[in-house]
């Protein structure tokens, strides 16, 4: 039995008199990639930011690696990795300088080149953040979540707006991070991505979890209701054409 690393019990959050999160409960297992899916405004980011200790909740109980969020938020901060808003990247600094800056904030010693290597950005060490492509920016931003060697990282729509190759490259990176033992919580609007990447997903709608299981089980459940997809006549789709023609390798330079 896999160990539970996060528990969320009956979480509520309101902004004024608008209820954004209405009694959400779920567990995340150690070492899994857990997806939060749902339409815009469903309450995904709110839920993540509460677990990340960045936002207050109205009520509910949250534990992260055995730590109660109400009692030990600072201890929780030390064992999690959170992507910063990109506006937080000082425009005048290059990637190595930014890593030194963040490492200083965390009081951690890191080898910037080794960290950049791990996200395939060694060549960009002397570049500024704004000089990176969309995919490179996301990879750098994920690298910064790893500085404090966290047990859990939170990725809120890391692949939104990326081209198909950059998206696949990020999947490899996320799998790589997980294979080293880090638990990953991710939100995405791409269902193909959730299907190949996530061990389990929770589907949130209007502040409530309406389904939670493995992608495979959710699909089987739907099929068991008699659902049938309109027959696919073609053996490939336009994304297959795109990847076939342009290659799977990175094309960012
Ligand atoms: P998601 O990430 O699933 O798109 P959010 O958690 O960002 O959803 O938002 C959930 C709901 O809460 C939305 O209706 C949003 O407009 C509202 N909301 C989010 N942040 C705030 C805020 N700071 N003040 C008021 N309403 C907010
Ligand atoms: Mg969001």
Automatic annotation (TrEMBL):
Superkingdom of source: Bacteria
Sorted UniProt keywords: ATP-binding, Nucleotide-binding, Transport
Leader peptide range in chain numbering: none
Domain ABC transporter: 6-231
Gene3D superfamilies, per database record: P-loop containing nucleotide triphosphate hydrolases
GO molecular function: ATP binding
UniProt keyword annotation of ATP-binding present: yes
A UniProt-annotated Pfam family: ABC_tran
PANTHER family, per database record: ABC TRANSPORTER ATP-BINDING PROTEIN
Protein name, per record: ABC transporter ATP-binding protein
Origin species: Danxiaibacter flavus
């Amino acid at each position: 039995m896999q160990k539970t690393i996060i528990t969320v019990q009956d979480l509520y959050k309101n902004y004024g008199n608008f209820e954004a999160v209405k009694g959400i409960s779920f567990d995340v297992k150690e070492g899994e990639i857990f997806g939060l899916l749902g339409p815009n405004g469903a309450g995904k980011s709110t839920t993540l930011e509460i677990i990340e200790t960045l936002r207050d909740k109205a009520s509910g109980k949250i534990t992260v690696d055995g730590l109660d969020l109400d009692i030990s938020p600072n201890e929780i901060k030390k064992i999690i990795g959170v992507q910063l808003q990109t506006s937080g990247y000082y425009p005048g600094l290059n990637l190595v300088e930014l890593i030194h800056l963040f490492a200083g904030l965390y009081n951690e010693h890191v080898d910037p080149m080794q960290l950049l290597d791990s996200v395939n950005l060694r060549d960009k060490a002397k570049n500024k953040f704004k000089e990176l492509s969309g995919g490179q920016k996301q990879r750098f931003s994920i690298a910064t979540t790893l500085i404090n060697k966290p047990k859990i990282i939170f990725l809120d729509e890391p692949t939104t707006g990326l081209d198909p190759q950059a998206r696949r490259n990020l999947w490899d990176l996320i799998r790589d991070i997980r294979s080293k033992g880090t638990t990953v919580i991710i939100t995405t609007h791409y269902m193909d991505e959730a299907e190949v990447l996530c061990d389990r997903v929770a589907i949130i709608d209007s502040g409530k979890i309406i389904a939670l299981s493995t992608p495979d089980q959710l699909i089987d459940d739907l099929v068991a209701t008699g659902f049938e997809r309109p027959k696919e006549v073609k053996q490939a789709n336009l994304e297959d054409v795109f990847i076939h023609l342009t290659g799977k390798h990175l094309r960012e330079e």
